[in-house]
Prior knowledge:
By secondary structure, this protein is mainly alpha-helical. Helix content is 70%, strand content 0%. It contains 20 helices and no strands.
Amino acid sequence: MTSSVSKSSQASHTLRREFSFGAAFAFAFAFISPIVALYGIFGLAISTAGPSFWWGFLIVFAGQFLVALVFAMLVSRWPLEGSIYQWATHLLGAGFGWFAGWFYIWTLTIAMATVALGAAGFIANIIGIHDASGTQVALIAFVVLVLGTLINLTGRGILKAFMMASIVAEVIGSIGLGVWLLIAHREQDLSVLFDGGASLGVSEEYFSLGGPFLLAIVFIGFSFVGFESAGSIAEEVHEPRRNLPKAVLFSICFIAAVVMFSSLAIILATPDNAAELPGFDVDPVFAVLTAQLGLEFALPLQALFTIGFIASFLALQTSASRLIWAKARDRALPFSGALSKLSRKQRQPVGPILITTVIGTALFLLSNIAENLYTMMVNFTSGGFYLSFLFPVLAFAIAVLRRRWRPGPFSIGAWTTPVAVIALLWVVFELINIAWPRPLNGNPWLDWSVIVGAAALTLVGAATYARVRKRIENSEASAMLLALDDDHVSENAEKAVGKS
């Protein structure tokens, strides 16, 4: 079936392999950087569950590491652009895979806009705009979006350089800062981690189903996503079957270590009168850093944090654009002809990159107009990742239990079945935990935001899928990819799909 695809058709759908293992690791690392993860969840988690929330990191990491093992096996067998979409399609068919990709596209794009808004807050502080208005934040985020789009359009060289710079920023801004806080500014001993909600007056219900600890795990769940993004650039990585499983597993382990260490350092550096610190209720991390280091040190650190946020934005935009391009190559989206084209010189998916820019701009405008939209975006992003993860993990577990799974070069042997089952149970648990409509925000729309968002995307997705279903079934590109099955997967076949 693959032989029927013309050489010109293959040439028009090939990307350049310009990423090494190091670049793929940096890409996954930057996707949800420790800085973004720390700032995204620390204030929410500590205000909800107190210092003992830290133990939730161990639980979430254990569950997500099992998911990472599943994804490492999947990317080893199918190292194709589009990651979650491709894996789900190969395991349970085009319709199942289409919806996996649909939810993942929107999760990535909304997360991209959310991270840009987060970066805008830091930039506003750095340039002296304190208590920035919603309009000012949206405008700065738009500038970040435009500059990030230009970087992505320019080529992979600048993108790789920025990802490497983000690792340097993380080392200085997270590890270096954590070491300094522990050495020179430690206020608490480790017993504070066993507070169990006593400081919040909720110790009796701390571990209950509706208690603070499970809610903290909701927030922590956002810290350990992004490792799968290495697979989203699979056809741009040298020796992907060997390099990508390592990138997936190394990135989640490194991110977990840095986030847990940095969080521990800030917890132990938090003084007893923390509630009296200026701005602690809004941004406890910056409040503690300012109290311990002074404003003259805290502001330069925000510049490092900004680098981490922008690198995360770039990785999210790249992942979203590659997923859109991969689906368009299969003629699985409206306007697939335009969206599947690559630029001649850089072999970049220009159309999908610009689509993410348009959607991001629309979200910035809406966030400035619609009250609580930003909070809704944050809520849905966390749930959206786990909803997207559910598709390939469920499909993998079914394949393993039916004994239809044949591994690629990376395999965990006899551990495959228990890992598949436990990973599925974990993703289902965390998705329910995130989506559960707790009376948390004082607004029913926010409390139900994950469920409402998923339902809305399902309806729009069903209408879109109905429009493109026949094209998917008849698509030459889709047939070419689906032909890369078990006994037919080889380096030559892989190069026919993705070699420059």
